[in-house]
Design brief:
Nucleotidyltransferase, domain 5, about 160 residues, alpha/beta
Length: about 160
Amino acid sequence: MTVSYETVRRWCVKFGQTYANGLRRRRPRPGDKWHLDEVFVKIRGVQNYLWRAVDQDGNVLDNLVQNRRDKASARRFFRRLLKRTGTVPRVIVTDKLAFYGAAYREVMPSVEHRSHKGLNNRAENSHQPTRQRERAMKGFRSMGAVQRFLSAFTGNSPHFRPGP
């Protein structure tokens, strides 16, 4: 029996998110140290921002694609992250962008905030699989498609790529 690439793609679209949701429900509680970062993603030639939060073990906590990179966007991402995880971290680590500090003081003022260029490498490394997929697909077509892909991909990817 021969299975085409199109058949595999349809299976991924149909079952990928359901499988990722099941894995997400069974994953352990996130760590208490979160690394937050954003990266530029081009969608149909327009620059957008992919926000990502990773805990100290490298598990992706949440992704969000937005068209702005400012205090309001950071605040929205923080609130969504707290709602999805159901926990408050002990420490958040970000790069040196000023809007992170302004947003975190509003949303979670009791959390320690570390802002340094070299401390945030864990979040920077978590963008690599997304970049590989973006190159293979020759870019993304819409913000919704990116969000759907990332919500399924980040849940399934660690399951099929065990660490060293």
